């Protein structure tokens, strides 16, 4: 039995913190503010649309539909996002429906990243980007958001974390194939400003680099901040793949409906990966999401819009969690978007002392202590950093406030 069973592409990507923390959370009674999904009902119109899809007269909604996206859904996505991107979208060639944003990301890396290609990832980052780049044979290159001190007497905001323009520029080389942008960003909740987007866009155009723009939290933006779509900036449509998720958009993470939008010259390669792996996404869920987008299109920007209501509700939940964390002595970083926030736990080091010579980052051990002794689950922020940088950021933990 000396023959290795594991494919080489899995080397170094086979450990995953989620497995350990999900298990721990299941073992002790707790309030789980770790994993990010709503514990409230999706809106009635979304549930009704699904009920109608499975019990209505159109029996074909129980069968396979078009492999690259159910016609009703790609049509509505093209209409909705075409307006926002200022771009006429062809439903058949500029939209691809995927099994959640996860599959959309996987298709991007598999279809467009080759051995020897470098992919720039902005830290802290949604943790699957790094293994996905590696599984495609690419090399992740990291650049960090750097924090500046909060204004006197104020809590730090996710907006206080910024890219250093010279540092970012230095990461673009001849080998750079793509940059991954995630705004609003998980785990920090940062909403990149137009100026920051322009900086990234200019570098992409200058170096002929692609942009994978993960915008799954596009509607969860607070305090009047604006979500900028990088594909709408000059020179970017033709080199950007925009990724979205009905899971985050309509509070239905279990449905696993996602999509990519982009030029045919890029999407045709994603279609090849999709065709030869997943092939097809559940029809009834796609039909229901199509109806939900129809309703949002009709109510766009109005108080009746779910997108408007959800952001208002979550902003209140955010403020409540911020106050609660301050009351127990943590220092939350107030997020401008998403349903996550990072909090500084440095004040607790005397209470939960660090073990010298331990390989395990402090935040990870702190959370284990917090689960067992306080019944509260969060996620270590070191998870969202590359290995060499984990220990520099292990005084931070991530909470989810969608509960
Ligand atoms: N991107 C980001 C930044 C996420 O946080 C998540 C889910 N946690 C995804 C993509 C995956 O989304 P989906 O559930 O639609 O696959």
Task: Give your account of this protein's structure.
With 403 residues, the protein is an alpha/beta fold. The protein folds into two domains: 16-41 and 305-400, Aspartate Aminotransferase, domain 1 (Alpha-Beta Complex), CATH 3.90.1150; 46-299, Type I PLP-dependent aspartate aminotransferase-like (Major domain) (Aspartate Aminotransferase, domain 2, 3-Layer(aba) Sandwich). The chain contains twelve helices and 15 strands. It has helices at 17-27, 44-55, 71-85, 100-112, 129-135, 165-171, 194-207, 246-249, 264-275, 283-298, 306-327, 362-374, and strands at residues 31-32, 95-98, 118-123, 139-144, 146-147, 161-162, 176-182, 210-214, 240-245, 258-261, 331-333, 340-344, 376-377, 379-380, 396-400. It has a seven-stranded mixed sheet with strand order 2-10-9-8-7-3-4, sandwiched between helices. The longest helix has 22 residues, at 306-327. The mean pLDDT is 95. It binds 4'-deoxy-4'-aminopyridoxal-5'-phosphate. Residues 36, 100-102, 126, 182, 186, 214, 216, 245, 247, 253, 258 line the site of 4'-deoxy-4'-aminopyridoxal-5'-phosphate.
């Amino acid at each position: 039995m000396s023959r290795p069973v594991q494919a080489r592409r899995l080397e170094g990507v086979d450990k995953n913190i989620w497995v350990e923390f999900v298990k721990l959370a299941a073992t002790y009674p707790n309030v789980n503010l770790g994993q990010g999904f709503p514990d409230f009902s999706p809106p009635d119109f979304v549930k009704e649309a699904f009920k109608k899809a499975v019990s209505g007269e159109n029996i074909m909604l129980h069968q396979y539909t078009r492999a690259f996206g159910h016609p009703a859904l790609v049509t509505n996505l093209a209409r909705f996002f075409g307006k926002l991107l200022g771009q006429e979208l062809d439903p058949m060639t500029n939209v691809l429906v995927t099994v959640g944003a996860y599959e959309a990301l996987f298709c991007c890396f598999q279809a467009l990243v080759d051995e020897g290609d470098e992919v720039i990832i902005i830290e802290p980052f949604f943790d699957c980007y790094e293994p996905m780049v590696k599984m495609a044979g690419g090399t992740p290159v990291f650049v960090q958001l750097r924090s500046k001190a909060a204004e006197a007497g104020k809590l730090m905001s996710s907006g206080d974390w910024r890219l250093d323009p010279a540092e970012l520029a230095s990461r673009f080389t001849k080998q750079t194939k793509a940059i991954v942008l995630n705004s609003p960003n998980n785990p920090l909740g940062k909403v990149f400003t137009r100026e920051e987007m322009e900086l990234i866009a200019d570098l992409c155009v200058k170096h002929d680099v692609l942009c994978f723009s993960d915008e799954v939290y596009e509607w969860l933006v607070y305090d009047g901040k604006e979500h900028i779509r990088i594909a709408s900036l000059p020179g970017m449509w033709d080199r950007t793949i925009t990724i979205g998720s009905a899971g985050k958009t309509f509070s239905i993470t279990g449905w696993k409906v996602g999509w990519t939008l982009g030029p045919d010259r890029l999407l045709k390669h994603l279609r090849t990966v999709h065709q030869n792996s997943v092939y097809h996404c559940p029809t009834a869920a796609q039909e229901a999401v199509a109806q939900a987008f129809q309703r949002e299109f009709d109510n766009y920007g109005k108080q009746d819009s779910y997108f408007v209501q959800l952001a208002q509700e979550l902003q209140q939940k955010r403020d409540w969690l911020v106050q609660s964390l301050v009351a127990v002595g943590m220092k939350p970083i107030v997020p401008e978007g998403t349903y996550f926030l990072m909090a500084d736990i440095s004040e607790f080091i005397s209470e939960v002392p660090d073990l010298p010579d331990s390989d395990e980052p402090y935040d990870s051990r702190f959370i284990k202590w917090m689960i067992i002794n306080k019944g509260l689950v969060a996620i270590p922020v070191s998870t969202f950093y590359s290995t060499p940088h984990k220990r520099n950021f292990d005084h931070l933990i991530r909470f989810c406030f969608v509960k």
